[in-house]
Amino acid sequence: MILVTGATGKTGSATAKSLSDMGEKFRVLIRNEAKKQELESLGAEVIIGSIENVEAVEQSMDGIDTVLILLPNSEGQLKLEKQLVDSAKQSGAKKIVKMSSIEATPDATSPIPKLHLESEEYIKQSGLSWTMVKPNFYMQNLLASAGTIKDQGKIFLPMGEGKTGMIDTTDVGKVLAKVLSEDGHESMNHEITGPEILSFYEVAEIFSQVLGTEVDYVDVPLAAYKETLGQFLTNQWHLDAVIDLFKGIAEGGIEEKTDTFNALMGDAPKSLAQFVTENSFIFKA
User: Fold this and answer.
1) pLDDT-derived band of residue 285, with 50, 70 and 90 as boundaries?
2) Cα–Cα distance between 23 and 2 in angstroms, integer?
3) List of domains in the chain
């Protein structure tokens, strides 16, 4: 039996859908009871409770062989992930699959990649079998710019000339489901990108081509963007951490795509043009 944490988020729900499509038995631990019926319709066994609640975690671990650790980035994330690892080990689970980040490298200085790396090391020292799945930048992040794309034909972000390997969360969900449900991925770091390495100027060009209207990328100074974002992200740690990630992209980002998705799935990951086409009703005025 597989335990999926984070099953109500974009990536977690994509993972649940993929596991369902594969006919795999899985359990989810969620705090939002309103999502219970939707997940049960996918065949999931649903436990209602918080990751912070020890009893709920212990209940969700009963009879579990494989655990997906997929938590939202937060100041307390590392502590919670360590607790999940400890609970998995104590309950007799055999394998941990962790949702990490391609930026989680030994030379990482940004808070989010650093906590991912520390969590990875804790898992590796646990004695459990492990696999890390490490994407880069989600295409779904661009949905936050839908309003300005529709109203002004502009994408306002502080990324400079930096580049990312954008991937759709549904593709990440497919990889996670595959890794969770089969052997052969032990002690592996699966770094996954989309099929292109793109600057945000190139992103705007793709939007223009697909939507049939001019979309421009506006490179916003980092300090100004932080002030705007601070109106929506009220947690100071989270705000600082996100801005630090954006700073890393602006300073260069990543230069090379990986073929990991193709090798694992036998198919190409979704391109940005495909993503924009599928979501054009959101981006068009």
Assistant:
1) confident
2) 12
3) 2-134+170-176 (3.40.50.720)
Give the Cα separation of 127 and 234 in Å (integer).
Answer: 38
CA dist 268 and 37 (Å) reads 32
CA–CA distance, 219 with 59 (Å, rounded to integer): 48
State the Cα–Cα distance between residues 21 and 252, nearest whole angstrom. Answer: 38
The C-alpha atoms of residue 28 and residue 59 are separated, in whole angstroms, by 11
Model pLDDT for residues 147-197, shown as the tens digit of each residue: 999 999 999 999 999 999 999 999 999 999 999 999 999 999 999 999 999
Contacts of 185 (CB under 8 A, 6+ apart): 97, 131, 179
pLDDT of residue 3: 98
Asked if 64 and 98 touch (Cβ cutoff 8 Å), the reply is no
Please name which of 17, 141, 127, 14 lies closest in space to residue 70, comparing C-alpha atoms. Answer: 14
- Of 86, 68, 100, which is closest to residue 4 (Cα–Cα)? 68
pTM of the complete model: 0.95
Parallel, antiparallel, or unpaired: how do β-strands 129-135 and 95-99 relate? parallel
Query: How many percent of the chain have pLDDT more than 90?
Result: 96
Residue 35 tokens read as 């999502």
